[in-house]
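Review form for a predicted model. The reviewer records the input and the model, then writes brief findings.
Reviewer: anonymous (R2)
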Amino acid sequence: MNTGPILFLSAFLTLAGSFWGLILVPQMQLGTEDLRQVGPAKKLYPHGRLGLAKRGADVYRSHGCVECHTQQVRPHGYGADIARGWGNRRTVALDYLLDNPVQLGTLRLGPDLANIGVRQTDAQWHLNHLYHPKSVVPDSTMPAYKFLFMQQSINGTGSPHALVLTGDAAPEEGYEIVPTDDARALVAYLISLKSDISLFEAPLPQPEQEEGDTNAVPSEVPPGPSAAVD
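Model under review:
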């Protein structure tokens, strides 16, 4: 019996099924995703990144930050991301719509950054963290990115962009540490990373009500005479 046609047909169906399941179905599910109006103001989401934040995405990629950090908050039941405070909801495909490339990451030597722009909004903190991580996170394992900064002699009152550093992180007397344009762009990108918009497929949790608290306005009933008891 010639089994060649059967083997060919089996291989063809296997490849066709894989193509359908791995390429066509995801394209049908996500390929038509578009900007969405969200919230009472009906603003378009996601907002995209402009200026320094857009440039900062390239700096982030060029220095391999994705090798140690992810940008994907897993849902309840698939890890403790939300319990750790990395986000108030899981991330979904819409969050990445305007990112090219999408920098999901696969390893977490450092915390997830999908919502770092909500968790830490202070640009000075981020700059200090890049220059000397242990100055703001004592047990940090992140390497120092001092090449993103310049040490220069203080001229007059000094630069308004100079880092405020103390202890081992402080420069020699008479000198100051100033961030380069790449450092400022990278920080702008980090602060732009926010997934705090409530979506249909990933709603934000509702605040818990205290026991006995309701939305009803209690009615005031004027006290009346006590009923007589026979």
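Findings: Confidence is low (pLDDT under 50) at residues 216-222, 224-230.
Further findings: The chain has five helices and four strands.
Recommendation: see findings above.
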